[in-house]
């Protein structure tokens, strides 16, 4: 079976959604159609048989855990997030906070090698693990974007992927660590310490595509069309993939950049590794002609990634950005 149909499970407390799981080893035409369907309906899906070697994932996870296990004073020796670097609770520049610590890094190998000197006691090992992981998930992202173009019947199958294959691609990798709440709640009112807290608040990802890997601790939630928040069941054997704002623009609104958030766990540490596939800063983002019809004109004005990124940094984490770039006369919010 190529894909597991989404199912919803009711309990007294919440609704759990099982996202479509696409087996990339299946028939290519069927796989591309299933991916398009998932992007239209959810903006999220999982992939298995993804081709990223287990040892590359394991080395990346080990290096990540080693860093977050360091004393706080040691971690602060890393350049503080502005926005790249180490961050603890503070997210961005506009006052957003969450119960999370993270490393946000550019994916350029020379940048990784230089930053590794303050991140790890064995810089060469850290740099090697991170660079190998980035290369592997970039290839996965490119393959998925090519499959999307095929499923959308766009003749130029590399219309999306060439933006992140570019040597000047502004892609990022973020390592997130959500400590269990008892650790975060020391010396605080115990009555609130057993409640899950917001680790990373409601938002959409501004880039093209996100490839997410996490351990077996839950916390990710997505917002459905009716506004309900539903938890996503963790599955360490797969990658989660979600549509970014730029891909929603380039598919003329056909794909959905779904809003999501992460909660902490009361008793277990959650760690995730997110690869954000971004274009070069000067890349022109526009709707391909094949996505425009007389009944579906272009919804968004052309813009550069630098322009969109500047607008995103000027807003709060949960603010909607795409509305700033919609065509005049189009009254929709997103």
UniProtKB/TrEMBL annotation:
GO terms for molecular function: gibberellin 2-beta-dioxygenase activity; metal ion binding. Keywords: Dioxygenase, Iron, Metal-binding, Oxidoreductase. It catalyses: gibberellin A1 + 2-oxoglutarate + O2 = gibberellin A8 + succinate + CO2. Its EC number is 1.14.11.13. The keyword Nucleotide-binding does not apply. Pfam families: 2OG-FeII_Oxy (PF03171), DIOX_N (PF14226). It comes from the Eukaryota. Pathway: Hormone biosynthesis; Plant hormone biosynthesis; gibberellin biosynthesis. The keyword Iron applies. Residues 168-279 form the Fe2OG dioxygenase domain. Transmembrane segments: none annotated. One of its GO terms (biological process) is gibberellin metabolic process. Belongs to the iron/ascorbate-dependent oxidoreductase family. GA2OX subfamily. This is gibberellin 2beta-dioxygenase. The lineage of its organism: Eukaryota, Viridiplantae, Streptophyta, Embryophyta, Tracheophyta.
